[in-house]
Design goal:
The protein is α/β, with parallel strands linked by helices and 251 residues long. It has twelve helices and eight strands. An eight-stranded mixed sheet has the order 1-2-6-5-4-3-7-8, sandwiched between helices. The chain is elongated and about 60 Å long. The termini are far apart.
């Protein structure tokens, strides 16, 4: 059940890596929920604190509230065992076992991540326009983070050229960040796909964006970084792409 998958992601001390390990050992989220202390004790790489977290936090009420809020806000839940969860995105060991989404899934035979500076030059904007329109024409999915600057140009050009784009957010899908991208967000929902690992009501926070960036990397076969500044989120995304064995091109 979806409720059990959401429950798993809300457990204290159980991150994406541990959740995935539990799935590999026990099968799925409902079986993890049903597992007793003896069964959990047999999983050697599970700490005492993690075992206690699973046993003590055995209420589904929070997960039910999250799911109900998703239904009220037209947000859907993508679980680890769903065939639509792209194989490329599941490859990294820290891939989330649950994602929240709005919009439509399409075939993603090839994906290109396009990210970069929020304040960019005219030359960088032109590069983005050329690259995103080329991807749209070749039926290559454009992945980005819906931030100001390069990200928003990539999404917009891709959609205007009849392409398919995926926006990965660092907050709940009931919140538009930045606020001025409300029209763009609605357009992506209608023609593309919005993704977040955070449940509705989760506000954007500085520490959440590096985690968002790792998903841009894992959903992209190749990453184009356009006019990235030192210490920027774009360079963090590039580091993740290299870690995941994805090709990175710095423009």
């Amino acid at each position: 059940m979806i409720i059990h998958w959401i429950w798993l992601t809300q457990l204290p001390f159980i991150g994406s890596v541990t959740a995935r390990r539990l799935i590999e050992k026990l099968g799925d989220a409902e079986k993890i929920y049903q597992a007793g202390s003896e069964q959990l004790a047999e999983i050697s790489d599970l700490s005492v604190r993690q075992r206690e977290s699973i046993i003590r936090n055995h209420s589904l009420e929070k997960a039910k509230r999250i799911f109900e809020e998703c239904q009220n806000k037209n947000i859907f839940v993508l679980c680890w065992d769903d065939d639509r969860y792209p194989a490329r995105a599941k490859k990294p060991t820290d891939a989330p076992v649950v994602l929240y989404y709005k919009g439509n899934f399409r075939e993603m035979d090839q994906t290109i991540g396009i990210i970069g500076a929020r304040r960019c030059s005219q030359k960088s904007k032109q590069k983005t326009v050329f690259l995103a329109s080329e991807c749209a024409q070749k039926k290559i999915t454009v992945v980005s983070g819906m931030a100001k600057g390069i990200d928003s140009y990539a999404h917009t050009v891709c959609l205007n050229t009849g392409g398919y784009t995926v926006a990965i957010l660092g907050n709940g899908l009931d919140i538009c960040y930045p606020a001025e991208h409300n029209k763009l967000m609605k357009c992506i929902e209608e023609k593309g796909l919005l993704i977040s690992e955070y449940p509705p009501g989760t506000h954007p926070d500085r520490y959440r964006f590096p985690r968002r960036n790792r998903l841009i990397s894992s959903w992209s076969d190749k990453l184009f970084v356009i006019q990235a500044e030192k210490g920027s989120g774009a360079l963090i995304t590039a580091e993740y792409s290299r870690k995941y064995g994805r090709e990175v091109e710095m423009e």
